[in-house]
Specification:
The complex is a heterodimer of chains A (about 725) and B (about 240). Chain A has 30 helices and two strands. Chain A is an all-alpha fold. Chain A has a two-stranded antiparallel ribbon. In chain A, α22 packs antiparallel against α23. Chain A is elongated, with a radius of gyration of 33 Å. In chain A, about 45% of the residues are buried. Chain B is built from eight helices and eleven strands. In chain B, α3 links the parallel β4 and β5. With about 240 residues, chain B is an alpha/beta fold. The N and C termini of chain B lie far apart (about 50 Å). Classes of the chains: A mainly alpha (about 725), B alpha/beta (about 240).
Chain lengths: ~725, ~240
């Protein structure tokens, strides 16, 4: 039984997090800066301080630099079929494959990124894939009329078509030869003046404009008035009167009226069947239809319309309404078959949604259901199987081979997809990497086809080689894959595999060498930040090929690690205030680390220290100097510096850093100075004071090193207050935590 | 006077939210809930005093960075007994005018139905450093909504401990209440007591958001806080 409590991927937010995770480096927020453009319009209306909104960060997805996405990743995904991808990623990859669309325009990151760095964000797929969206029925490039914007995307209201309906009606009236100019004007004015209570429930709804009000209308005008009465009844929810009005037009001389009334009859019946089927308060739309007669009649009418007008102006919409009808009826078999058709035909004139919207609908209307076994469509099954391979706890997902094999008949004609799923199951559920490689078989020669499925298969091969410790073979595989996947997103994914293979093999320097250089600045940035030693960092600072952000990151990381890993003479050699100022100015536009933080002029209070360069000089002469160590601690404390926590071992940069030496930990340095008899008493007192304050204000250790229990903190506090009671620090210490 | 009022309030709160013996948050012990997309309605919902009902998500889901409002949740505007807050998950503050207009319109649709609609709630994870911007955003949003529409925000526990007093004061002058989330994932955060101890910095009506099924033991000092208005439970589907 699958845990489906939160299987709808489109649901997010409150249940996920309670607080922001702290940034590791000071001043390195990963928030994305957005240009002002769209905010201006809104705020200029109301307030002149539009600028305050420009930089507000959105959700910061936690982007793991890894190809193994075992858990649900939210908006952050990878450009291949993966269990950790939100279903909307996987659905859209399959839609792209099925529709043989040219690969959409892709963009990859152009510089290092420190905070959030997903390989692919859900919104990355939105615009390019949007190219496959068929134009709306009367899409003619006009601006969306204002009343359409009163509704959210996906809002389930029949009134969303009011504005479009107005426009279509007006065009049909203008095109009707049997209407006089006066009649045309009166009719268009009547439609434009119609106030619909579903659009403006607070407005008093006037009666429908009627033919009786017009002086001696022609028969053609009478038909248009009948249509207006139907439209008014439809939007106001008076469906029975709408059906009567539309019914009068079945034999109208006007072709637009005949076709539109026929379509509207089916649509009206469907809306009638929907009355009262949703609870007023519910977090999930679960229709309970009681008016089965209207539902059945709607199906007959919509099918009748499609039979009469297979390429009609409302054909895509009618097909969409039938899909809604299957959903309302709880007919999952027909619903899944229809979704199967839509996935394979997003570019078809009869499809009413583009890939992003369709994937969202499938996620919310189908994948949340309880009875997945009713799906027989290979693409839907594949997406569900990948969800089932997702890790929900620390345990491997349970997905026995027999369960997958039972689906084999449904994959007839889609053998390549099934073969991929078999290998993915062995990899993600069994953790059997040899079996994964065996199931994948040899790589077919030639270009990757279909693009996303074939790419997913080759990435899985690389993952399995890496997981089985064959890093050299994995690196060869990734190198061979690079020219086959030149598109930016996929290129970066392959480079991620390559960089991780090199890192594991202990040859990370290849990522920076001329002939084997990794093109992705984001990947190089992760390596510089977490893995690189002094040689690679200096090389990155000097390399004219380095991006500005990369240089800034390398300079900052080099100075920080030299100061905090005991490389004092190296620091003095690399430290130049002029170079720092020049470098920071060159990279000002990149919100990465500023090396100017190292231009520190020392402090008088609470402990007297000279400038940082003198502090490091003192330590270069005597690495154990208590004054020098305390002052280095003061610099780090006041500047709020800390080394970025390394990524988990399973991610890029999670291997052992090749920067030699142990990292400076204030907590351990204070303890050591306190324990050593050579430490001057005054320095011991200050170390004690700092140790007590390490646990301010919440009792958690902010100084690094091994935590101590509360009894020890109390003992420190008491020693400070007694043995060193005459020092100013003892006076200012009032609490311990 | 102040002390007497606080004491009275404490008594009321103790009566309103009895902690279960095992300290596990049970929906039946509370009267206000978040009903998020994908969470199914159940008897507690109709009997509730207040429901925060998810209406949509606002995110920059296009490559051009412009935010869109996508409807979420399963309810259509209809008659309701509990007082309602219309909740929106916000991932981007980069709004065009149509988003505030659509929220306004949704409020009008709901208010046309029998039952009270208190206002709208924004669920946005503003970092402590971003709080100032967020407050400015909220004051603009407030002007775009009807005067009798209250404004609630969800808050991160960091705000209470790390935000500057000026930012917190600005927040309290802008919104009607803050609901702080005490949980991460399905569990109450481990260091919650340290956070709660900082809530006395707030001069604004606030509630605490609890996760159904998480463990919770209210610190005694909470009931004495004159700004504490009670709890909102984030409902989950039963397993």
């Amino acid at each position: 039984m699958i845990d489906r409590r939160f299987s709808s991927d489109a649901t997010s937010g409150l249940w996920q997090k309670a607080s922001q995770s702290p940034a590791f480096f000071k001043g390195t927020s990963g928030a994305r800066m957005r240009p002002l453009y769209s905010s201006v319009a809104f705020f200029a209306l109301l307030l002149s301080t539009a600028a305050v909104f420009a930089c507000a960060g959105g959700d910061e997805s936690t982007g793991a630099w890894s190809l193994d996405r075992l858990e649900y990743g939210g908006d952050s995904g990878v450009p291949f079929l993966s269990p950790g991808n939100d279903t909307r990623f996987n659905l859209q990859f399959l839609m792209l494959d099925a529709n043989a669309k040219p690969v959409p325009t892709e963009q990859a990151g152009t510089d290092v990124q420190l905070g959030f760095s997903p390989l692919l964000s859900l919104h990355d797929l939105d615009t390019p894939v949007k190219g496959a969206t068929p134009a709306p029925p009367s899409g003619d490039g006009k601006e969306a009329p204002a009343s359409e914007t009163l509704f959210s995307d996906d809002e389930g209201s029949r009134c969303v078509s009011d504005a479009r309906g107005k426009q279509d009606f007006s065009e049909a009236v203008q095109a009707a030869p049997a209407l006089s100019a006066d009649e045309k004007k009166t009719l268009i004015d009547a439609r434009d003046g119609m106030v619909l209570n579903c659009v403006k429930p607070d407005a008093a709804a006037p009666a429908a404009p009627a033919a009786a009000q017009a002086p001696a209308p022609s028969p053609a005008a009478q038909d248009f008035y009948a249509y207006l009465a139907g439209a008014k009844g439809f939007y106001d929810g008076d469906f029975d009167s709408a059906l009567v009005s539309f019914g009068k037009l079945a034999k109208s001389d006007n072709a637009w009226l005949r076709e539109t009334a026929r379509y509207m009859t089916g649509r009206t019946l469907l809306n009638k069947a929907e009355i009262g089927v949703f609870a007023s308060l519910d977090g999930v739309a679960e229709p309970k239809v009681t008016d089965q007669a209207s539902l059945a009649a709607a199906e007959t009418e919509l099918n009748g319309y499609l039979a009469a007008y297979p390429a009609g102006r409302y054909a895509a919409s009618a097909r969409g309404l039938l899909r809604r009808l299957y959903w309302l009826a709880g007919d999952r078999a027909r619903l899944s078959a229809e979704y199967g058709w839509q996935i394979a035909h997003v570019a078809d004139p009869q499809a009413n949604l583009g890939a992003p919207d369709l994937s969202r609908e499938i996620d919310s209307k189908f994948l949340t259901g309880a009875a997945a076994e009713q799906s027989h469509d290979p693409n839907l099954l594949a997406v569900e199987d990948l969800m089932r391979l997702r890790r929900r706890t620390s345990e491997k997902p349970v997905f026995p081979s027999a369960d997958l094999e039972a689906q084999a008949p449904d994959f007839a004609g889609h053998e390549a997809l099934f073969a991929f799923l078999r290998a993915a199951r062995a990899y993600y559920a069994d953790g059997d990497f040899a079996a994964t490689l065996k199931l994948l078989g040899p790589a077919p020669p030639g270009p990757l086809s279909p693009p996303y499925l074939a790419f997913s298969r080759e990435v899985l091969r690389g993952q399995a080689l890496m997981a089985s410790g064959q890093f050299a073979a994995a690196a060869d595989h990734w190198k061979a894959l690079l020219p086959l996947a030149p598109q930016p997103w996929r290129q970066e994914a392959v480079e991620l595999g390559l960089a991780m293979s090199w890192e594991k093999a202990g040859t990370v320097n290849k990522a920076f060498e001329k002939d084997t250089r990794i093109a992705s600045p984001r990947i190089r940035g992760v390596l510089l930040r977490h893995v690189a030693g002094p040689i690679l960092l200096r090389q990155a600072i000097a390399d004219p090929q380095s991006t500005p952000g990369e240089k800034a990151l390398a300079r900052y990381t080099l100075l920080l690690k030299e100061a905090t890993h005991g490389h004092y003479s190296g620091f003095l050699r690399d430290y130049s205030p002029e170079e720092i100022a020049k470098g920071d100015a060159e990279t000002a536009q990149f919100g990465v680390m500023k090396s100017s933080v190292f231009i520190w002029n020392g402090a008088n209070e609470p402990y007297k220290c000279p400038a940082l360069k003198a502090v490091i000089g003192e330590l270069a002469a005597n690495a154990q100097a208590s004054h020098g160590l305390l002052c280095l601690g003061e610099f780090i404390r006041i500047a709020g510096l800390g080394e970025a926590a390394p990524p988990p071992a399973s991610e890029l940069g999670g291997g052992k850093s090749i920067f030699p030496g142990e990292a400076f930990s204030r907590g351990e340095v204070y303890k050591k100075l306190l324990a050593e008899s050579a430490t001057p008493e005054n320095d011991k007192a200050y170390a004690l004071f700092r140790l007590v304050n390490c646990y301010k204000p919440s009792g958690s250790n902010g100084c690094g090193g091994k935590d101590v229990d509360k009894a020890q903190r109390k003992a420190w506090f008491q020693t400070l207050k007694t043995k060193y009671g005459s020092t100013p620090w003892a006076h200012s210490a009032i609490y311990y935590w | 006077m102040r002390a007497a009022r606080a004491f009275l309030l404490a008594l009321l709160l103790i009566a309103a939210a009895p902690a279960a013996a095992d300290g596990i948050v049970r929906a039946a012990d509370y009267d206000s809930y978040w009903l998020w997309a994908g969470v199914r309605a159940r008897p507690e919902v109709d009997k509730a005093k207040t429901i925060y009902l998810l209406q949509g998500e606002i995110g920059a889901d296009r490559a051009d960075g412009a935010a869109r409002l996508k409807a979420q949740g399963g309810a259509a505007p209809g008659p309701h007994t509990p007082a309602l807050w219309l909740a929106y998950r916000v991932r981007s503050l980069d709004w065009g005018p149509e988003i505030a207009a659509a929220i306004y319109h949704r409020l009008v649709l709901w208010r046309a139905q029998p039952g009270r609609v208190i206002g709208v709630q924004m669920d946005f994870d503003a970092s402590t450093r971003g709080l100032k911007n967020y407050v400015a955003f909220l004051s603009v949003l407030r002007q775009a909504l009807p005067a009798d529409c209250e404004l609630s925000v969800t808050g991160l526990m960091d705000w209470a401990s790390q935000a500057s007093p000026e930012d917190l004061d600005a927040l309290s002058g802008t919104v009607d209440e803050v609901v702080f989330q005490t949980y991460r994932g399905r569990q109450t955060v481990e260091d919650i007591d340290a956070y709660l101890a900082r809530l006395d910095r707030l001069r604004i009506p606030f509630r605490l958001g609890l996760a159904e099924g998480a463990s919770w033991s209210p610190p005694a000092a909470l009931a004495l806080n004159p700004h504490f208005q009670g709890y909102v439970v984030f409902l989950r589907n039963p397993p």
